[in-house]
Structures are given as C-alpha cells and as structure tokens.
Design goal:
The complex is a heterodimer of chains A (112) and B (113).
Chain A lengths: L3 E3 L4 E4 L4 E7 L6 E7 L5 E7 L4 E3 L2 E6 L4 E6 L8 E8 L8 E3 L3 E6 L1
Chain B lengths: L3 E3 L3 E4 L5 E7 L5 E8 L3 E8 L6 E2 L6 E7 L2 E6 L8 E8 L8 E2 L3 E5 L1
Parallel strand pairs in B: 2-11
Antiparallel strand pairs in B: 1-3, 3-8, 4-5, 4-9, 5-6, 7-8, 9-10, 9-11
Classes of the chains: A mainly beta (112), B mainly beta (113).
C-alpha cells in the first residue's frame, strides 16, 4: 500500500463548478499535512496547510479526518487557472527535518 | 518570498559522466532536500540535509551523493550517470524542525544519453 494515495484523475469540470479531491495516508503517526499545486513542467508550490479543525483560503477548503486517515481539498467556483495537478503531502516528523511524503497527484482540468 | 535557485533548467550529459546539480536558497533554511520526479511515480526523496555537513539518505539514494559545505548550498552528485537517472530533479528547502512546508526550486530536467 502506498503511503499517500490519490485518485490520479483527470477531473474535467466546467468553470464555476465545485470539485473535491480526497487523499488517504497510511501512517497514523503523520504529523502535518499540506496541499501543493503543480503546473505542467513546473515545480510544486504550496497551496495550503491542512489543520485539524479544517481551514479555508478563499475558494479553497481543506479538511483532515485523522480517524479515517484522509484529507480533502474542496475548490469552489472553479477557474480556468485552477487547472493543474494537486499533490497531497504528508509529514512524518522525524524530529530532525520535515520529511514529506508526496502523493502522485490528482489532475484537474477546468473547461469553458 | 523564499527563493530556491537551481543552477540549470535543462542539462544533457552522457552515460558515465560525473554530474553536479547545484541548489542555493536565500532564506537561511536549515533543511534542504533533493527529489526526483518521474511520471506515475511522483516525487521521490533522494537525500536531505538538516545542517551543514549533515546528510541523510532518502528513499532512493543509490547512485547519488550530496554535499552541504555551506548552509545555503546543497549539491547533488551523480557519480557515474546512467540512462535510468534521466528525470526531473527538484531541490527544496524548509525551516528547521518538523511540520514545516518545503519550498521548491524550478527544477532541472536532466537527460542522460
């Protein structure tokens, strides 16, 4: 079983739609969680951290369910510019460095 | 803004060559990382460093070594390049301690012929 699993997609949605991605992780000792965005042939960029109580940043909402070991990302009112691959990232705190484990990503394509 | 700079965007080398990939960050971050990214496999950690002259193996260290002589610079070395090391290489840095996000450089697309 992969440490971090995501549906690869692609998710094809029209502009203005709401779309949600889920991600599951296998290690219950995981300490912190993030969503990154990666555009084609570019580097991953931090989209948002995921907090235990859930958090929102504009049109983006992230949630964490520790009991079921999954995190989610909800995008409301999708824009064409949201088209990208979204990477679910989990940190197993080694104590010496924030060693992150990346999912393989979910591809989103927003269309007119 | 954090700036992580990788020395080359594109690099073509030959089998058996010794290859150096350089990474510099300007935010005084303690931690630095080297990943490779391949289609269908996602990002895989090669090596990381949490302090000057310190290094730890990641998930796929074979065929690679690293050097961190100064805090801002982390070098990845392919001792004898092979075709299966053709990949996108990404450097990242983060503040010391756990639970911190990482910030990535633009990446180096390395082709080994």
């Amino acid at each position: 079983r992969k440490e971090v699993e995501q549906d690869p997609g692609p998710f094809n949605v029209p502009e203005g739609a709401t779309v949600a991605f889920n991600c599951t992780y296998s290690n219950s000792a995981s300490q912190s969680f993030f969503w990154y965005r990666q555009d084609c042939r570019k580097e991953p960029k931090l989209l948002m951290s995921v907090y235990s109580s859930g958090n929102e940043d504009g049109r983006f909402t992230a949630q964490l369910n520790r009991a079921s070991q999954y995190i989610s990302l909800l995008i409301r009112d999708s824009k064409l510019s949201d088209s990208a691959t979204y990477l679910c990232v989990v940190n197993l705190n080694t104590g010496t460095a924030s060693k992150l484990t990346f999912g393989t990503g979910t591809r989103l394509q927003v269309t007119l | 803004d954090v700036k992580v700079t990788q020395s080359s965007r594109y690099l073509v080398k030959r089998t058996g060559e010794k290859v150096f990939l350089e990474c510099v960050q300007d935010m005084d971050h303690e931690n630095m990382f080297w990943y490779r990214q391949d289609p269908g496999l996602g990002l895989r950690l090669i090596y990381f460093s949490y302090d000057v002259k310190m290094k730890e193996k990641g998930d796929i260290p074979e065929g690679y070594s690293v050097s961190r002589e100064k805090k801002e610079r982390f070098s990845l070395i392919l001792e004898s390049a092979s075709t299966n090391q053709t990949s996108m290489y990404l450097c990242a840095s983060s503040i010391g301690g756990g639970n911190q996000p990482q910030h990535f450089g633009d990446g180096t697309r390395l082709s080994i012929l």
